[in-house]
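Why predict the complex rather than its parts? Because the way molecules touch one another can change local conformation, and only a joint prediction can capture that. The input here totals 738 residues.
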Amino acid sequence: MNNIEKVKTLIIDEPLKLDCGQTISNFPLAYETYGTLNEKKDNAILVFHALSGDQFVTGTNPITNKSGWWSYLVGPGKAIDTNKFFIICANVIGGCMGSYGPSSIDQKTNKTIGTNFPVITINDMVNAQYNLLNFFKIDKLFSVTGGSMGGMQALQFVANFPDKTKTAIPIACTASHSAQNIALNELGRQAIMADKNWNNGNYFNTESSPNNGLAVARMAAHITYLSKKSLEDKFGRKLQERDSLKFSFDADFQIESYLRHQGNAFVDRFDANSYLYITRAMDYFDLIKQYKGNLSNAFKNSKTKFFIISFTSDWLYPTLENKEVVIALNAAGANVGFIEINSDKGHDSFLLDVPDFLSSVRNFLEANY
Amino acid sequence: MNNIEKVKTLIIDEPLKLDCGQTISNFPLAYETYGTLNEKKDNAILVFHALSGDQFVTGTNPITNKSGWWSYLVGPGKAIDTNKFFIICANVIGGCMGSYGPSSIDQKTNKTIGTNFPVITINDMVNAQYNLLNFFKIDKLFSVTGGSMGGMQALQFVANFPDKTKTAIPIACTASHSAQNIALNELGRQAIMADKNWNNGNYFNTESSPNNGLAVARMAAHITYLSKKSLEDKFGRKLQERDSLKFSFDADFQIESYLRHQGNAFVDRFDANSYLYITRAMDYFDLIKQYKGNLSNAFKNSKTKFFIISFTSDWLYPTLENKEVVIALNAAGANVGFIEINSDKGHDSFLLDVPDFLSSVRNFLEANY
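Output of the joint prediction:
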């Protein structure tokens, strides 16, 4: 998390009442844009990132020096064409890439806020990002989109602001976090909290962060992003740089080495407390309950045209859960398209080079612009 | 792990050459029996336990004071009827319920062996348990059975000793551990090793064991034992002893509370180093590779009658992998039956009250005895 001061930041002075009851104000929202807002201001797409994402959608992420997380989808000439559209993406509140979160400094104490940060929700994240429309003087977005937690934010955005986007593309998501997904997130949180360095969230005052715990949480999550078949095809039982089993606890298999790498690389760019807060927001997400058990009420005033996308091998946010949103939208009389993309790459499909997915998004955007 | 001295133990004086190259001898194998061996000694069933199991198959486990792990299946009048059959079950080597394992005391140093214990395999476990036949003077077992890692041992037993059992019932298992399962086991190992108390396995000399890490490993495993649907049906988004979200990191949801309980209860009865060794043995299991890529060669000399059982909602050892064994057995000209039981309880189905499963085992045993 070096060079975090380099990111573009908007200070939200409008007070924001959070679902927990607290009100925050004068807080930073870090964002990035790609492409150019046209004169009519009708070509803006607000992209929402997922759990481990950030505002650096495409190009080179200036903090990590790696490609943006949606480089396959977004860019000049790509499915979300930055020659045509103006892309805005903000780091969610609770995050660690410049937006107000547990690693922000409390001005009163000059220490990081840590677990004094309020527990936030997907609704809070979306309401914070709504300020971007005022900032860019956009009356109505052309689209909102995102995968996984990004898709949940897209659903929440339309529910909260039914007149503020022409289209919406929620991808590989759900209207209500499942018990299995709560369980998997709780596993990650417990891995972090089990690390003695976590120290109830007050680790910025000490030499070391709960890197071991965060790496384990990331490993667990990473397994769930892939399908059984993709793991088998990519790794199988292939050994790591050796011809035979080593009869030790070193990484014998390539899959072990890969997971260890994923865990260790993550701690360089992510804050453990942010991981706790963002997974908590995901678990709290229940748009069905927000609308008293009737999801279609979330969309009954919306003129937004929806395109819901799921992937066959995604077992984290399976087609079944995406279809529940389609059914609710139909019940609300909304304009809704749906496609289940054939892919054996699991939940990660929305981040990868899956041609049918990329062309589906491209075609929907072109047909409706 | 109190009262471990109370368990029945056989000392194996026959040297056992392990797959890693080391030879062990004069080591303890803890076991339990249920029912009575008949005069012809043709009614014995050797049961193999799974990762977190032990020799206490049914009745009350004298160490934990809880029911034996296979109480639904095994007992007087039950599917595996202890009024009719003589059941033998041993704690696997590498385990922590009295058999030779990392928590055994090294006589030379008077300390626990820890990670000086050799890395063992499913083959080693089975070869160690073969000594039970000599001990009970049984020439041929009536059956071998077990679920999950127990099923793998059953397959290995028949491969190693084609004349030594009349029947075999491998349940919810595989002939070759998948990349996804290696990944999940590695996650558990890394959770343990991330705990500072693990201390490279030398934690019996200190005040504290790596309980946090072991609890996280157990939580991770527990999620995989259940199906998405069973988690949804059992827990859904039900809150734990409260009416509304608490906006904290306490266990808001029942599923969180359940997982925390599962993790904490496990550390009272299981040794973290044993968890490392046993998961490693599972990951190393590849009967296909043992037989040079042709699984049917593992069974080509066997007169054993097989009954393979899988469960529809088991995503850890799915029907597909169980069927690979059936196909290989057919290719070897073996006598093989197969059933996929409809159950939405996931991998754990083999431990639960699933009537079709219980009656299938009962019918197979009765028809062949």
